[in-house]
Amino acid sequence: MPRRRKGRDIDGILLLDKPEGISSNHALRRVSRLLNARKGGHTGSLDPLATGLLVLCFGRATRISEWLLGAEKTYLTTARLGITTATGDREGETLSERPVPDLSETQIESVLEDFRGEQQQIPPMYSALKHEGRRLYEMAREGVEIERPPRDIIIHALRLEEFGDNTLSLFVRCSKGTYIRTLVSDIGERLGCGAHVDTLRRVSLGPFEYPQMMELAALEELATREGVSAVEELLQPIDAGLAGWPSVTIAANTVERFCQGQVVATDSVDAGALVRVHDEQGELLGMGEIQQELCVSPRRLLVQRSRQG
């Protein structure tokens, strides 16, 4: 018999303000232990240096991770000009130091304009991407560098917030797969002096636009003071992670068939669209895909496959 995973079945989403100095996985483990949750995951890593929004999914909420992983993200970052590092941030070994030219905001804006929109970006060696089964950062620590194919990304917004003392404060809204360290490094090269990330904070992810977040220390203090149930009350419903996707309702007599993986009739929505599927009581059953004949097929179920209609 397979071993049953320890912990409680808890469903929901917690918006954590990750502190600097720990990995995203470490933060997840601490909150999972706090809740005694059997199953948990996060929807996009933050470097240990980075702070801000880490969306933690527990229980059935982990089934919607793919839609959050692919969502747009917003960052506030400070770039230090004149110094490049091995990791692209202030924690890495210094590779070069160059004088910073006397830049005007007009010159900086001209460079930033070239980085807006659709483009290709080469991932850094210090990343969690894999090559022949090994993480790139493991190879980088051994002094090995391999060729990395460029990836398609979109910089939806790039704005200069502040400039002074050889630093640029930038607002960045970007697509999945964008490395802010690489963006800052590339901007630094275009400015002629190099640059690295000094600070990085994620403030939005997908439907969670500048949300209220809980700090890790505050969560642990709340659990000590009022019990784990007080922390559990902070969990958002699974539906919150899918806000923005269109929604359809299916009839009560089709719910069981839908939950068993069958195609059922639904409201009129464009063929091929991904939708949230609810029953007549408003419960989220899962994500579905609209078929040509105005029917919906299950794409990801969030309930048991056998259910009373």
Entry summary:
With 309 residues, the protein is an alpha+beta fold. The protein has helices spanning 24-35, 65-69, 105-113, 136-141, 180-190, 216-226, 228-232, 255-259; strands at 12-18, 40-42, 51-58, 73-81, 83-85, 94-97, 117-121, 130-131, 134-135, 151-164, 167-174, 195-205, 208-209, 214-215, 247-249, 264-265, 274-278, 284-290, 295-301.
Structure overview:
The protein is an alpha+beta fold. The chain has 8 helices and 19 strands. Helix content is 21%, strand content 34%. β12 and β13 form a beta hairpin. The model has no long low-confidence stretch (mean pLDDT 92). The chain has 3 domains: 91 residues, Pseudouridine synthase; 133 residues, Pseudouridine synthase (2-Layer Sandwich); 56 residues, PUA domain (Archaeosine Trna-guanine Transglycosylase, Chain: A, domain 4). 31% of the residues are buried.
In the CATH hierarchy, the third-tier topology of the largest domain is known as Pseudouridine synthase
Average residue-wise pLDDT: 92
- Could you say what the CATH architecture of the largest domain is? 2-Layer Sandwich
Identify low-pLDDT runs: none
Tell me the layout of helices and strands.
Blueprint: E1 12-18, H1 24-35, E2 40-42, E3 51-58, H2 65-69, E4 73-81, E5 83-85, E6 94-97, H3 105-113, E7 117-121, E8 130-131, E9 134-135, H4 136-141, E10 151-164, E11 167-174, H5 180-190, E12 195-205, E13 208-209, E14 214-215, H6 216-226, H7 228-232, E15 247-249, H8 255-259, E16 264-265, E17 274-278, E18 284-290, E19 295-301
Parallel strand pairs: 1-14, 3-12, 15-17
Antiparallel strand pairs: 1-3, 2-3, 4-11, 4-12, 5-6, 7-10, 8-9, 10-11, 12-13, 16-19, 17-18, 18-19
Helix pairs in contact: 1-6
